[in-house]
Amino acid sequence: xxxxxxxxxxxxxxxxxxxxxxxxxxxxxxxxxxxxxxxxxxxxxxxxxxxxxxxxxxxxxxxxxxxxxxxxxxxxxxxxxxxxxxxxxxxxxxxxxxxxxxxxxxxxxxxxxxxxxxxxxxxxxxxxxxxxxxxxxxxxxxxxxxxxxxxxxxxxxxxxxxxxxxxxxxxxxxxxxxxxxxxxxxxxxxxxxxxxxxxxxxxxxxxxxxxxxxxxxxxxxxxxxxxxxxxxxxxxxxxxxxxxxxxxxxxxxxxxxxxxxxxxxxxxxxxxxxxxxxxxxxxxxxxxxxxxxxxxxxxxxxxxxxxxxxxxxxxxxxxxxxxxxxxxxxxxxxxxxxxxxxxxxxxxxxxxxxxxxxxxxxxxxxxxxxxxxxxxxxxxxxxxxxxxxxxxxxxxxxxxxxxxxxxxxxxxxxxxxxxxxxxxxxxxxxxxxxxxxxxxxxxxxxxxxxxxxxxxxxxxxxxxxxxxxxxxxxxxxxxxxxxxxxxxxxxxxxxxxxxxxxxxxxxxxxxxxxxxxxxxxxxxxxxxxxxxxxxxxxxxxxxxxxxxxxxxxxxxxxxxxxxxxxxxxxx
Amino acid sequence: xxxxxxxxxxxxxxxxxxxxxxxxxxxxxxxxxxxxxxxxxxxxxxxxxxxxxxxxxxxxxxxxxxxxxxxxxxxxxxxxxxxxxxxxxxxxxxxxxxxxxxxxxxxxxxxxxxxxxxxxxxxxxxxxxxxxxxxxxxxxxxxxxxxxxxxxxxxxxxxxxxxxxxxxxxxxxxxxxxxxxxxxxxxxxxxxxxxxxxxxxxxxxxxxxxxxxxxxxxxxxxxxxxxxxxxxxxxxxxxxxxxxxxxxxxxxxxxxxxxxxxxxxxxxxxxxxxxxxxxxxxxxxxxxxxxxxxxxxxxxxxxxxxxxxxxxxxxxxxxxxxxxxxxxxxxxxxxxxxxxxxxxxxxxxxxxxxxxxxxxxxxxxxxxxxxxxxxxxxxxxxxxxxxxxxxxxxxxxxxxxxxxxxxxxxxxxxxxxxxxxxxxxxxxxxxxxxxxxxxxxxxxxxxxxxxxxxxxxxxxxxxxxxxxxxxxxxxxxxxxxxxxxxxxxxxxxxxxxxxxxxxxxxxxxxxxxxxxxxxxxxxxxxxxxxxxxxxxxxxxxxxxxxxxxxxxxxxxxxxxxxxxxxxxxxx
Lengths: 571, 571
Description:
The structure is a homodimer. By secondary structure, chain A is an alpha/beta fold. Helix content of chain A is about 65%, strand content about 5%. Chain A contains 23 helices and 5 strands. A 5-stranded mixed sheet of chain A has the order 1-4-5-3-2, with helices on both faces. In chain A, helix 6 (about 105-125) packs parallel to helix 9, helix 9 (about 170-200) crosses helix 15 (about 350-360) and helix 14 crosses helix 15 (about 350-360). The radius of gyration of chain A is 27 Å and the shape is globular. The first copy, chain A, starts with 6 loop residues before the first helix and ends with a helix. At the A-B interface, helix 1, helix 5, helix 10, helix 11 and helix 13 of A face helix 1, helix 5, helix 10, helix 11 and helix 13 of B.
């Protein structure tokens, strides 16, 4: 540890801790605002990097994130490993068998949403290179190829997340979009690998164009034929004869690192090896769900935030912000991709509204566009201004996707149980001990908490008419009450705990210690049914009841609900 | 990514992949030989480092693992983060509430097994410093303090694993040993932190002895009082308001990185911060089992092997091997710790045999001794020869612990279901379709496979007498047969799959497609009961039956058994 002694180690750990903390906090804020978390993670880097901290307190920035020396190498290496593992997990999540689920429609969308933006991007860059502030030593042909790729890429993870949010993932629409996005990912990244090979060779760094491109295509071919079969064959040996799941996790990571080293060595980039190996591994039905889950959770919660935050450290997003360029790139990207996606959907005989929605879905570029821009920036084929424009385009298109699909398709959002709980709707100690008293006590609270949104007298009227309150069940210690209410647009659940217990009648010996009152929109009985079913499922478990009774605050109660295994497995 | 461009990145990824692959393969081999996996992981570094690869192919070694430059910094940084996370997980696993489970006995063992080796180690180093080939600029007092610590440390993780292996973990003996080891860990590392603070100050690197020591003690005090309470308070907020479990995992890692940065900065070492923070987090009942599991699995299966392998890269274990020194250190370490542990146990009124076994248990030094040696090596207070001696002592004492306890206490090892399956005992297609035919077919195979160990006629006699074969159950598609057999010392399970199905009689419409024949030692009916219970539990699940029927080889079948969730949760 010569190069990195003591003080450096302390600073490195502090830098990693601070970067991860900022990325997690801002990522969570973005998520709560229903935005992609990569937005918050990038912002963390922008805050701690040259843009903000570097301007306000340059010494602090240089102390934490020096541009040169052993610490810079160390941070770079960690960011490099992080992006490698992130792409491996992204590859794992690509389920190739999905491409064929809607037959030709998905494929048509996939082809059109690559071909049209690719052609348009190439034409713009070739015809109007002066817009892009091209470094003088960059070949216009290569730059045009790069911009063509940049216009045509989609981000599968963002698309999947948006579809899940909108409850469209399992619809016909969702299946078409996902299969198109998988096709887009696969073909787009293969073309990009080839283009990167060309770029390096033209820059005089590579091993000859033909060699690089054939090695790249040979690697991809190998991974998807022999490699895929070998992995499928080897996984049971790993599971049967090594410590599980540690052995399986190690196996996947080793393969990704070696694949990444190979693609980096042949002159494309490490991420391709990791991504294609991830796809090959994820394709094996032998890969166990638990290993996949651990890889996914750890990488997404530690390595991806670190990587995306580290991008913000590289560029000053204010001085390198060029409004006109941002506008051009953003508009061009949206138009190409909307036309491409919609044309593909029309070609697959989808309706007009749906075709437009397909266009907006495919337009989400998220993390993939950012990584693509970063690679081009590192090779010196784009300016920092264009990189900033690509990052902003990536984020804006990802943010637009959800709201636009919502607007066009107006799908029924699925109410989530966890969203139905509210701070004031948790009563740690009920005073009433009869069912009628409890209903009065609970609805009074609802009136206070939702006062603005909900007229209290409506609720109290509802509560006073016992025929409107259905007693769903009293099982073990739990009493479930449900009522349809006017004037609310989403369900609410009031939760009460009772030490003395609540009885159905004076005579009843069975008393409930946990009481839920579910209030759902009167015109949507399905929601009420969903809520009753989910709560019943969660509270089948005696441990869950015991833990609920120990909850001392709303936060502890909500933490319990959100982390309970049953609830999670359903997601 | 200036400092680490392309070719360097490829080499770094290759180096990490190769190191992790070697560490996992050798670690698994060690585990199969019932040795601590850290032994194999260290050997991986020895193979790829100066000892073997550096001697046979110095260019390859310098290419993969250069001693200087940006790649060396990068590898060092990754190893540094790895050991930080490893110590965090080690801290998580320390369950402080255990210390009090056996009242004073564990505490007495803990005190004696630190105090006696500490005194002896100090006396040896102070009285005979010439043995240890002391660097001339090292203060004899500090060296004596270091050796005192080195003699008195135990390794909780190794001890827990050995006790689990011997089925002693939940026995009174196990509880005493674990609580003593926890006390040892806690107190030993606090003293070591203080000693390291002293060392740095004497070397002129620190902030003044009083300041360093008070900061170190202040940090520990803070972590275990206010810090512990704060963490306990904050965890429900993290669970309730961030994406779960990613938010919780990130929270724990951020705290560990920041704690590590602080302890490194005050002049002790990063690992202390991570270890104590890990203990404080692990102490909160709010920490969810799933987050703990993901942290544990990912860190143990990726970061720990990388770290331990990287240790092998640092020293040439052949040229720096000094037989006499190894012998002295090993004997001194064993004697001190055996006397200390046994004396403590006697003081706690344990029997003589048990007291001796306690001594051997506490003597396991594992990873902790190696880390301690590494820190001293990096500070230049011990020679490479003494480091090699400490590593060898750590490994030998860990390897001895299990066999010696086995010899002294002779506990009944619990038969594990997965060990009862054998390559030849899996019949993917049964020919017979009656229960009698199946028993004949299966026992014939047993005769072939275990021929050497088991006289075939014994088995065939058993099989011919149907009254000795109990039909445990035929539930769904599964038929469980069990028989007590002479002349075997462990249970075996023969597994057969049948497409046509096996009926209990000609008339029977219910046919079994999965058949298990459990052969267990006749004189141990408890084992048979355990096996029947475990198989029944596993095969309650229809998915498990379906997957079993799809298994095409013994390996696929064993992989299924070992990775099935129910089986795992029991561990």
